[in-house]
Amino acid sequence: QMWEEAIHICKELAEQYESHVFDYEMLSDILQREAKFYEKILKVLRPSPDYFAVGYYGQGFPTFLRNKVFIYRGKEYERREDFEMQLLSPFPNAEKLKSTSPPGQEITSSPGQSIQCFTVQPVEETKVRLKGRSIPEQITNFYKANHVQKFSYSRPFKKGPKDPDNEFANMWIERTTFTTAYPLPGILRWFVVTETTTAIISPLQNAIETMMKTNEKIMSEINRHQNDPSLPINPLSMLLNGIVDPAVMGGFAKYETAFFQETYLQEHPEDAGNIEKLKDLIAWQTPLLAEGIRIHGRKVTEDLRPFHERMEQCFTQLRAKVESQYGVREMVS
């Protein structure tokens, strides 16, 4: 299903048929096949594969595996449990490590075999020709999980005094980024990791990332429904309700109590710019929600009408609060 790659090959063949061997019958055939690939990109749903980091630790492994980490590309809809079973089958005596932290010397130097496996997220490299343009999600989705050489794993941890009422205030993230020898997918479904870096993400940076992802998710759902009115409404219902109904998720009120108090700014004056960024993301969420609820109201069935009206009431209150505190943002349709 890597039709983007097939299109490149079609273009190479078309150039040969048109300008070198003058076989117009084959040219016609290859152009028709190329057109079908473009159509499939837009119309056929392709599941994004999962990627797994696998570490082989201990002196019991052959040298090409010993104390090395590899990134594997999973098959369609492959669960991690199934992948692990296949992974462990050639090494029946290997111990499966439960922790995702890098193992200590007592494991790497031991005569036995220990295998570590966890899911990692592909880190998309922004393509220059796609940057800053409004492009259908079916086209951009391919590049989120293909031609990828960097993969990240985020491990949350608590630091500082515990706040029982607000876990966001001291929720830090340790993010490890793995770089493979070659981009995936390649001639193999797995490549060795050649570089590993670790960064610490503060609770405020984590809040900004979460808000950005939420806003992108709303925008993505809006675009999907505008491009295909026949889509089922349930995913949009759950997404919108989870944000606007305070009884479901609590919204972003936790961020306000964690980061927007005077005491936080006095203790962390260097975070002033990031606090403004978070406030701006909260303000921009309002027009996105308004558009999502408008689409939802247009498509909602009569039996779900009370649910929609409840969501509208919650949003009206939320909108008044956000616009009074963080200003009004207007979205260009």
Q: Helix segment count?
A: 11
* Category from helices, strands and their pairing: alpha+beta
Helix content: 40-55%
* SSE string, helices as H and strands as E: HHEEHEHEHEEEHHHHHH
Major sheet: order of its strands?
A: 1-2-7-6-5-4
Major β-sheet annotation: 6 strands, antiparallel, barrel
How many separate domains?
3
Average of per-residue pLDDT values: 89
Distance between the termini: 33 Å
Query: Rg from C-alpha positions?
Result: 25 Å
Based on CA inertia axes, which overall geometry fits? Answer: globular
**How many DSSP-defined strands?**
7
Q: What fraction of residues sit in β-strands? A: 15-25%
Low-pLDDT ranges: none
Q: Could you outline the blueprint of secondary structure elements for this entry?
A:
Blueprint: H1 3-19, H2 24-43, E1 51-57, E2 68-73, H3 80-88, E3 95-96, H4 105-108, E4 114-122, H5 137-145, E5 148-158, E6 171-184, E7 190-201, H6 203-227, H7 234-244, H8 253-259, H9 262-267, H10 272-299, H11 305-326
Parallel strand pairs: 3-4
Antiparallel strand pairs: 1-2, 1-4, 2-7, 4-5, 5-6, 6-7
Helix pairs in contact: 1-2, 6-7, 6-10, 7-10, 7-11, 10-11
